[in-house]
Amino acid sequence: MILKLAQLPECYPLGGREDRLVMTLMDELSDAPISKLNLPMPREARLRRLAEMLIADPSAKTSFANWAGTLGVSERTLSRLLVQEIGMSFGRWRHQLHVILALQRMASGESVKTVALELGYENASSFVNMFRKTVGKPPVRYLTEHRTIAVSGRPV
Hints:
CATH architecture of the domain at 94-156: Orthogonal Bundle
CATH topology of the domain at 94-156: Arc Repressor Mutant, subunit A
Radius of gyration: 18 Å
Mean pLDDT: 85
Structural class: mainly alpha
CATH superfamily of the domain at 94-156: Homeodomain-like
Helix content: 55-70%
Number of strands: 0
CATH class of the domain at 94-156: Mainly Alpha
Distance between the termini: 31 Å
Shape: globular
């Protein structure tokens, strides 16, 4: 929905489909619990391309060196650009992406194992370890606590 809205002209017709999309997004954002999760999107063209490729195929096993080659930069330049532009390493950004995608899928009912395999992890255990290191809690506990916060307005 965000990608669709980003393509809208600055002056879209009020009362139409575009206006309803904007209003729906605003409603959802205002009701969303505040989270430590953050996925900054780069503005620099090469980094933006990298982000779009990773979002399109989050299970890609491409090495950092190959990503750099695909973008036509050295690994060192790519690392420097990432830290300057988004304030985190490639690995951390990718983990954040995986966590956000996983939460979306698990919130809609997919199992941890299914999500782990879809994101390219060899098993659920390796995914849960990454999730715990990134967020501080295993995925099911994180979801349970955040659902409780959303319903009651206070943490478990």
